[in-house]
Amino acid sequence: MTGPILIVGEVQNGHLSGPTLEAISVARSLGGSPSSLVGFVAGHDSRSTALEFGRFGVSHVWVARDPTLDSAPIAALALYIAAAATKAGAETILVGGTTLGRDLMGRLAIRWNAAVATGVTEVRRDGAALQVRRPIFGGRATETRRLDGAHVALALRPHAFPAPLDAPVDPVIEDLPSVPLPAAWLAPRRTGTETSAEGAGPSLGDASIVVSGGRGVRTAENFQLVEELAAALGAAVGASRAVTDAGWRPSSYQVGQTGRSVSPQLYLAVGISGAIQHLVGMLSSRVIVAINSDASAPIFRVADYGIVGDLFQIVPALTAEVRRVRAL
Amino acid sequence: MEIVVCIKPVPEAETRLRVAPGGATLDAEGVKFVLAGYDESALEQALLLKEALAGSKVHAISFGPAPRTEEVLRAAVALGADLATWVESPSGSAVDPIQVARALAGAIAAIPHDLVLCGKQAGDDEAGLVPSALGELLALPDFGSVVDLRWDPVTARFKFLRSTDAGGERWEAATPCVIGLQQAWNDPRTAKLPNILKSRKAAIAKHPAGPDLPGARSEPQGFELPAPRTGARLIEYKSPQEAAQTLVRILREEAKVFP
Question: A56 and A11: one domain?
């Protein structure tokens, strides 16, 4: 597979998102010359993001301007992406490590007849096929999988790949012809959006630092200590199930088996003992730090660095130190 | 409302993972299988909808080998599922998640389905491919990472929140549709002993996966366990301030995770 690679662009605050930039990196590492890198972006006002693709060496961008995509289910977007892949003669589709990436893959597997994988952290060519590695079992194992066939589509895992270096080209930007969408797919309506269910900071899914609090925090009011540290770090706030079960914070905060899975660069566990149900939601974080008063807590067995001590003293000191260093 | 819930048996969370001979998969020998975590939420959500809507039925469906697949179906019956269908996996051949979706879609197409509920992903392979593939195969809209799913009898629509990286999206959708659930309203219930005993005799319908199932497009080649963690490097300190300074210095200079 050395044919064109289609990169699905997601837009955040008017720019290509971090996960999309990671996907561009992967496309380039697969030996994609500018002529084989093709971008896709949806939205009626996408010219600036289409141009942004060019900054990173993507030479051709297909734009889906269909206004119904703004509030249509992902199924409709998948149709346009498959159409762009056909136009581009693509053999590979790459999507960033987001909920969109995951939700597209099942559709593309059928509609575009692709071999697919999600949560991918490494990609390499293996003869005519692609070989990927992906953490499974909540980061307790890693599988290597070979994807065969003329079409392969991958959703990456966030923070697994570097951002691409600038390699500016002047991209050709073309509008995709409109694709007829089945009426049943347009019947569901998006009635609103909520920015970051986890509060004012970055969301759990795409934050590069996550600070989570557990039972050791003791009360809903004390949880502010965790949030202040997160704010100082520019981090997302998470919680163990003990916290959400107690109602100290809503269930959208929960990291673990029945909550969110996160894989940030840095995961700070504050007052979390480290039950396996929590660990499977954060084990694939790059660096794990634990702060807990109980030196025998299982969290210290998986953490890279630990502070055994009273979180009510350590955490405020840490927040102050982070603020001090940040202000330098 | 006819509610179909797709469930998957996965190794229980406390399982000590071992590599199977050949090195490509988990060694399932002696492993205890349980209902996958998000699927447990999906089943709970289905039972809550059934209780809220008179005349509803919950039909649990699972793809996989004996005996684990039959066991999770019986567990679902013990929890309150009315019907159970076992989609038998073809023996001896490895399957990928898209084949599973194709096999499930074949069985679901043959039964009434106003709502197809799945967990958003299973805790073993973490692929999360089945809900969206089912949507495509059954020609239905699908929604992943759904929390707070409710039925509005006035508009005859589901109302729900999709958890996304940017926060959340509020949606309304009519039946039929596919939903990949992240969280139910309540904690999953536990089965009562008389129901567990009754479930042992419950009828489990069998649906062959079909000889025309297309081949696997992806194949596992390696299953690796990380090197055992050596345990945290504990920071020594005389004051909380010293602990904080040392940690920040390490994170910046050694781990390089601090911007």
Answer: yes
Question: What's the topology of domain B2-208?
Answer: Rossmann fold (3.40.50)
CB contact under 8 Å between A184 and B221, yes or no, is no
Asked whether residue A170 falls in the same domain as residue A224, the answer is no
Q: Which of A15, A137, A156 to mutate to test the interface with B (most CBs of B within 10 A)?
A: A137
Cβ contacts (< 8 Å) between B235 and chain A: which residues? Answer: 305-307
A319 and A233, same structural domain? yes
Domain boundaries, chain B: 2-208, 231-259
Q: Which of residues 208-237 of B touch A (CB under 8 A)?
A: 217-226, 229, 231-235, 237
Query: pTM of the entire structure?
Result: 0.88
Instruction: Give the residue from B74, B90, B78 showing the smallest Cα distance to B194.
Output: B78
Q: Which of A268, A307, A311 to mutate to test the interface with B (most CBs of B within 10 A)?
A: A307
The arithmetic mean of pLDDT across residues B99-124, rounded, is 95
Can you give the pLDDT at residue A34?
A: 67
pLDDT in tens, B27-57: 999 999 999 989 999 999 999 999 999 999 9
Contact call for A99 and B144, based on CB within 8 A: yes
The verdict on A81 touching B (C-beta cutoff 8 Å) is no
> What residues contact residue B163 under an 8 Å CB cut-off, 6+ apart?
A99, A197, A252, A260, B145, B146, B147, B182
CA distance A276 to chain B (A): 7
pLDDT at A184 over 90: no
Question: Is the domain of A224 the same as that of A320?
Answer: yes
Whether residues A157 and A280 share a domain: the answer is no
Alpha helices in chain B (DSSP H): 37-52, 68-79, 97-109, 130-138, 193-199, 240-253
ipTM summary value: 0.91
